Amino acid sequence: MTPAQAPVQPPVNGAGATAAESRALIAAYYDAFNRGDSAAMLALVHDDLEHHVNEGEIRRGKDRFAAFGAHMAASYRETLTDIVVLTSEDGTRAAAEFVVNGEYLRTDPGLPEARGQRYVLPAGAFFALRDGRIARVTTYYNLADWMRQVS
Fold first, then answer.
1. Residue 40 sits in which domain range?
2. Dihedral sign (CA 18, 20, 26, 28)
3. 121 lies in some domain
4. 3-class DSSP assignment, residue 145
5. Segment (H or E) for 70
6. Beta-carbon neighbour count of residue 41 at 10 Å?
7. Residues 54, 70: contact at Cβ < 8 Å?
8. Which CATH number covers residue 79?
9. Does the pTM of the predicted model rise above 0.85?
10. Which helix (H) or strand (E) holds 96?
């Protein structure tokens, strides 16, 4: 099994964060997202972050996450609402459910042409937390639903 095929093991939270601290970390991450504050988002993720995107490959490292964020900001304008955050008792994992309210600004390769289409899409994310930062984020949404909305 190659490293890319190996199952992702949840990291152990070396900082001993509580569930409440982990909830606050995820809330701060989404607050920064909604403000469009990529620097604040980057400050909340671990240097060796694993970013698992819906229908895509795993991006490893803070630099690749930053590049993805810059691409997303250029192509989409999104705000998340109805955010609910859940955490494990030991603070090492979290999950969030939310609604993405977006506008498609610039055509992404392989996707429909962007014409300022608006969309509303339920989504969710799963997190692994380590050392007081986000070590893994896995995002899920219904791509077929999004395609119907922007086509």
1. 19-150
2. negative
3. yes
4. helix
5. helix 62-75
6. 20
7. no
8. 3.10.450.50
9. yes
10. strand 93-104
